Amino acid sequence: MFQKINSYLLLKHPLAWNTKIFPFLFILLFFNLIFFGLGYQDGALDFNRDNYNYQESVVIIFSILLSILVFISWALMYFKNNAFKSFYPKSGVSIFKEWLFILVICTLNLSYIPTYFFAQEKRARDYFTESEFKSRCEIITQASIFLDGSFQEGYYITIQDGEGKWKQVRRDSFDFENRKYALESLINKGYTSFSIQDDKLDSLSIVKVKKWMIANQKDSIKQIMNQFFKILDSHNLESNISSDEWFQKVYDFPEFTNYYKIGKRISAEDYYIEDYYDEEVIADSTAMEAVVESTSSHTEYDPKSFDFKVKNGVKNYYYKYYVNSKHMEDAYDTISRAWTSPTIDFQYLTLFFHIVFGFSFLFFSFRVTSGRSWLISLLTTISLGILLGALFSLRLEQITRLSSMAGIILLFLLYYFAILRNKKTKRISTISLNLGIWHFQFLPILVYYLIIEIMKLTQNYYNVSYEMRNATHFPEIEFLESFIGNFLGINLILSLIFMFILSKSIRKWRGIAES
User: Fold this and answer.
1) Contact 364, 437 (CB under 8 A)
2) Are 330 and 50 in contact (CB under 8 A)?
């Protein structure tokens, strides 16, 4: 059957047969499906443990090795039969179509890592709908006021004295809703936030809870805690206090200063000690010898909130009461980032496809020219890079650097089209064609930055203070600089147009006599 398919492609679709597009299309789709499955599996979150992924580096290394192996296997089959060297009649459209086939193979063979990360983040988003997840995050944020953590207002503020000098002074209270509260009051408590939440709405939500506390609306506070425990129960997370006990231990109306510190996990340290319930010696104050205080963000430990045990001469502190939410918050933060700042975004895709285009240009140029000229072009590129690097070390102006690089690329292309127009001999146009194909996608970007640099010089952008370099004073420059991400996407379209035009010219260029 495979022999019949191969014969059919050879006779009816020689371009597809020559590029091996169909067999490698199935192979590459199969590989991408495997990486999608690996990513989706690795994207699963454990709400009761750390979710550090130890397999990512292994997957990345393996994907790179697999891409190299596939490129080598495909290239050996593809370059074995060269229609250009055999003077097989080809239209301009077929040359462009051949490059598109190469582009498809390069895209699929380089997409293992993006596929893996996309599947990881999709798995994280699949836990909840966006609306449900936002609702859960709001509850966790509101409940975090009643858990141990940092405070919003600090001990020191900067004020201006009678002589107009600024100085720092220590304070013990802060103002909230027209009255003073101690800095250690829960009214000053910080909170947990997630990127999926709007900062302004987040702040309003916290202020609302603190106003409930001031108004002594116990039922509203209890409802938050009950909803928080429902979230914990949905993940099978166990705590050593109930919702009612939590309320009783932290709610101290009206000052909210006499409260237990409730931990988000057992240990008061930044690490989690598994053997909290083991049979090792639990030290008390009378049996203590010389021990070292364990490192922690807490400077003082309230005996009603903390207990300790000595391990290897180190006193380790533990919360007497905790709700098991620390790892859950970390998992929710991962889900939140999967919604708000996914790895595979527009910026990532534009960079990815610029790399893909670069690989396709390398294979295509080798196909339409020769191995010898391709190698000479590569050495020329390296030599030019060293030369330009040496020149740029002389602290040339930015406009000089950009214009010189853009000018060199234009020179390659102009020489190629000049040879094409004269139709006498190829001379070194084979090398200039390779260099033009490889570097064209950098040309629009260089011109874009060159335009911005010219505008900065003509509008005296560098002659004003840094604070004035904004959209108010330089709206056109600020717009162009903010538009660069979108322009990179446009640059891909320009590269497609360029290759369509160039593919038509290559057919004519192939008919020119060698030097």
Assistant:
1) yes
2) yes
